[in-house]
Amino acid sequence: MIKSTTQVECETHNIVPSLPRLKPFDLSIRLDHSLDPGAWRVPFSRIGFDVVMIHSTQPSKSTPSEAATYNETDLRLRVGERKKFEGNRGGTNILTKRTLTPDEVIGEILDSNYSFIPIAIGPHGEIGSLFNRFLHGGNTLPLPNFNKNRPNAERAAQRSISTATPWGILDKADKQWKHFHGERLFGANYLTPLPSSWADQQLGLTFITHISNHIFSSFKNIKHSSSSPPPQDSPLNDDDSSEYDDEYEWKYHDGDILGEDWLANEYHGIDICDIIDVEGVGISLPAIRTSDV
To answer: Quick one: which of 28, 254, 279 has its CA closest to 134?
Structure first.
């Protein structure tokens, strides 16, 4: 699909023509239409990805038949994908004074010949069926019902599962690697013999590291408080002292420590480039070259 890792871009501008400063994609691939014969040719100009982490306890509100057929975590991941398709970022161009709703932003992305795939990540590193299709192929969950006032959301979802959008890219990479290199190891050792095993390990490391960072950062929100003493049976109570030392009293603030609202507020501005390093420091994307795949 591409010749160079410079075609993998993070948080880039000029995606939405009417709002050129808006950055709707965490990560995007600028596709190449002049590749050698045998390469995967894609009719779109760009594939964009936007990452969402789902809440670990928020129910999916699925129908009884879906709840009986699919895993609850998969259904929650689908909710995260739907929210990304419906969008939450509109805006006004300060020069032209043109204002777009979130759905109109999605519409301009589609009209610019882009495809859009949400990357929904579960509480234990699971990935949504749309991104899994892109990586490994296979079937996706049925698309959810979208709000009637978000027609472009359904357009975007339909495009993400169309035959024009690449799917099973790691399976294709494995076949190409074996064709050109035989039994030669793709990675540094026997644990990564193929592009798919290397990619799965790197993505797993990335997701779990990011989730761990969420947990670590949440503990920073534990605030010191003297509002109440510890329980009577707490070892913090000293029988020799009638005064309670509030130095050891801590409490959580504002409900769930990793609640959906907290994640949205605290991590809205995280740059996915800090997690997926396209320059080879973290995930070494240059390991896959057009000549190899």
So the answer is: 28
- Separation between Cα atoms, residue 112 and residue 46, nearest integer Å: 9
The closest alpha carbon to 95, from 145, 21, 34, belongs to 21
pLDDT tens digits for range 190-248:
999 999 999 999 998 988 888 888 778 877 776 544 445 555 555 444 444 434 333 33
Minimal CA–CA distance to 262: which of 272, 271, 252? Answer: 252
**Phi, psi at residue 275, to the nearest 5°?**
-100, -45
Contact 118, 80 (CB under 8 A): yes
Q: Which helix (H) or strand (E) holds 207?
A: helix 195-219
Q: pTM of the prediction?
A: 0.72
CB 273 within 8 Å of CB 10: yes
Q: H or E element: which one contains 267? A: helix 260-267
In the block, tokens 């890219």 appear at: 169
DSSP 5: G
Under 8 Å between Cβ of 38 and 103: no
Q: Which residues contact 3 (CB under 8 A, 6 or more apart)?
A: 32, 35, 290
Whether 130 shows a pLDDT value over 80: the answer reads yes
- Using CA atoms of 171, 24, 118, 173 in order, give the dihedral in degrees to the nearest 10: 0
**What is 60-122 written as a DSSP string?**
----HHHHHHS-HHHHHHHHHHHHHHH-S--EE-TTT--EE-HHHHHHHHHHTTEEEEEEEE-
Distance CA 170, CA 196 (A): 5
